[in-house]
Amino acid sequence: MKRPRLILTLAGLSLSSLLLPSGPAQAQIGFGVSITIAPPALPVYVQPAMPAAGYMWSPGYWAWGDGDYYWVPGTWVMAPQPGVLWTPGYWGWSSGNYLWHEGYWGPHIGFYGGVNYGFGYVGTGYAGGYWQGGAFFYNRSVNNIPGNVHITNVYNKTVVNNVTVNQVSYNGGTGGTSVRPTSEETAAEHEKHLPPVAAQAQQQQVARANPSLRASANHGNPPVAATLHAGELSGPGIVPARGASAPAHPAATGPVHPVTTGPLHPVATAPVHPEATMPVHPSPTPPAAEFKAAAPPAAVASGNPPPKPKPPPPKPAHPPAPHPEEHRPEG
Fold first, then answer.
1. Domain that holds residue 100
2. Inter-residue contact 275 to 269 (CB < 8 Å)
3. 54 assigned to some structural domain
4. Is 16 helix (H, G, I), strand (E, B) or coil?
5. 325 CB contacts (<8 Å, ≥6 apart)?
6. In the chain, how many domains are there?
7. Measured between alpha carbons, how far is 223 from 219 in angstroms, rounded to an integer?
8. Cα(260)–Cα(123) distance, rounded to whole angstroms?
9. Is 233 left (phi over 0), alpha (psi -120 to 50) or beta?
10. Alpha-carbon dihedral 55, 76, 40, 259, rounded to 10 degrees
11. What kind and span of H or E run contains 76?
12. Among 202, 247, 252, which residue's Cα sits nearest to residue 221?
């Protein structure tokens, strides 16, 4: 197995890629981490129910630390202030290495590598909701809102995924996504940003300290894929991955990544009126049938189907009279 090579670079990244708390709010340049092997595929999992009104979803991702990739479970967090949305971080290929690009909070969704994290983050834009008048409006078709959580600002909008889905967790390189930032996403990267909140940093730290979340231990199938509360990896609200993931880019097999293909149509999400057009909660894959229908009979050697059997002739009411013996002309 090829041994990963760690390279420290200056790439507009922050130390949180090393699973340390983020730096100053508006810092644009920091130390990043480069790895020579690709991160595993994204695991498939369901979203735990929202704990209370005001929480927003922070999707799970693969991070690097102590010589191995490890999974940081998705979780619910509170936004640092009204009007900001979370742009997830992503791994990007550059000059023979995979570099981690830190996520951030900002007024618009920026570029996150075309990686389909699910639950509204399907490669570009965000379909989970929008801010208006200081309140966040939740898209119920994207967010798992239980009946015991009362939220006034809720709407239902089915979104159509126009991104090829394959659970790839990085951009560029061999097998990575080929998505490039739109002009709107590029503009969003130059806006004023806020770093991950304390709950997100705590989720990173507890995940790094848990040996079962390392890729070498779970082989891409983490036992804790998502949590109800940040920093809690046991107890109620813990969601495991649904089936093992391959080490690179398998086909999607679960409710997080709907299997659809087509050209990419980026959606620029605005804080007031976003155009949410991509699904996150498709119907689960139906279970395989318990039995198969009997196969049709084989065709005869000539290629024609066998003749249907004729029903027996009806029995006469009276015995038929004897027929005279047949005579054939002599040859």
1. 7-229
2. yes
3. yes
4. helix
5. none
6. 1
7. 10
8. 13
9. alpha
10. -50
11. strand 74-78
12. 247
